[in-house]
């Protein structure tokens, strides 16, 4: 029985003695980069472990699993891309071209008015030169004066050309000075040349429509037969600029005191609204220059400027604060 048991275990004992026994290498043959159990790693081994690609990969994914290192985070969310700036940088050359282009068009139309009327008072009504002067003035009235007659006769372009037309020198100078101020500030705020052009044309057309609506619905027509001037377009640009930067300080002309831009602009609009109410109830009256002011055109241009700011400029400039 004992012999049988030894015989059964003999193959296993023979196999155990036949296989070489594994022994860990001694300190003499162990590489210096592999730390032993219970021994501190060498500085070279620690640096190699920190800089290895596997260590960087494991630390990055552990950071992502932990939600960026914050408490309670479970997923990694990369930061959103930076929001593009809504402000359109305009070079000084382009800004000058836009402002001087509009001002130059107004000056050119004023010069045509001057050429058309300069010979009239010096000619007799029955002379040939008087007839030519009358023809020039009639042509200017048909193409550069806003009136219901011109629009009904198919001269629809007067809705826009009348905004570039000035018959009086003081009227031209005041409008161009305010236009230069408003347009330059709009470009400085980042409106861009395209936005400024659209704002100018839209304000001019809306001002013309408001003027025609006022003339056709008022009970006191008075001697006003047509309208011209860039006041409505200027009011639209100024209203959009004032809504964008209402707390920017500007100087009045008379008196020269500093006021916030929003207070100045909407103060003028309040005055226009009051004068329009007086004109509709008591009839139009002349201003200090002997002209009739189109208060409805002023308010129409400002309405387009505020609407364009609310629908287009305000969403684009959301989060941008101007002072």
From TrEMBL:
Renumbered to this chain, the Pro residues biased-composition regions fall at 77-87
List where Low complexity composition bias occurs: 39-49
Q: How does it sit in the membrane?
A: Multi-pass membrane protein
Q: Name one Pfam family in it.
A: Rhomboid
Q: Name one GO biological process term.
A: signal peptide processing
- SUPFAM superfamilies for this protein: Rhomboid-like
Q: What is its main location?
A: membrane
Task: List the keywords (alphabetical).
Answer: Hydrolase, Membrane, Transmembrane, Transmembrane helix
**Where is this protein found?**
Membrane
Its protein name is Peptidase S54 rhomboid domain-containing protein
């Amino acid at each position: 029985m004992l012999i049988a048991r030894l015989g059964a275990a003999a193959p296993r004992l023979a196999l155990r003695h036949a296989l070489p026994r594994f022994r860990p290498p001694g300190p003499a043959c162990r590489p210096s980069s592999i730390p032993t159990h219970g021994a501190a790693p060498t500085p070279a081994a620690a640096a190699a472990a920190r800089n290895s690609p596997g260590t960087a990969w494991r630390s990055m994914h552990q950071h992502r699993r932990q939600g960026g290192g914050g408490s309670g985070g479970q997923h990694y969310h990369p930061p959103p891309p930076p929001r593009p700036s809504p402000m359109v940088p305009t070079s000084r050359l382009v800004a000058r071209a836009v402002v001087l282009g509009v001002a130059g068009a107004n000056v050119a139309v004023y010069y045509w008015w001057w050429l058309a009327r300069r010979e009239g008072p010096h000619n007799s009504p029955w002379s040939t030169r008087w007839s030519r002067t009358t023809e020039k003035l009639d042509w200017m009235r048909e193409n550069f004066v806003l009136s219901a007659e011109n629009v009904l006769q198919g001269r629809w372009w007067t809705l826009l050309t009348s905004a570039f037309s000035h018959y009086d020198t003081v009227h031209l100078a005041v409008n161009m000075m305010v236009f230069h101020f408003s347009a330059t500030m709009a470009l400085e705020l980042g409106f861009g040349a395209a936005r400024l052009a659209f704002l100018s044309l839209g304000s001019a057309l809306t001002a013309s429509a408001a003027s025609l609506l006022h003339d056709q619905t008022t009970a006191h027509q008075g001697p006003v037969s047509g309208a011209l001037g860039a006041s409505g377009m200027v009011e639209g640009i100024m209203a959009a600029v004032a809504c964008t930067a209402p707390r920017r300080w500007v100087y009045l002309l008379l008196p020269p005191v500093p006021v916030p831009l929003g207070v100045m602009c909407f103060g003028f609009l309040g005055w226009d609204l009051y004068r329009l109410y007086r004109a509709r109830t008591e009839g139009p009256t002349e201003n200090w220059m002997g002209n009739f002011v189109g208060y409805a055109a002023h308010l129409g241009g400002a309405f387009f400027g505020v609407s364009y700011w609310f629908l287009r400029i305000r969403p684009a400039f959301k989060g941008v604060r101007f002072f």
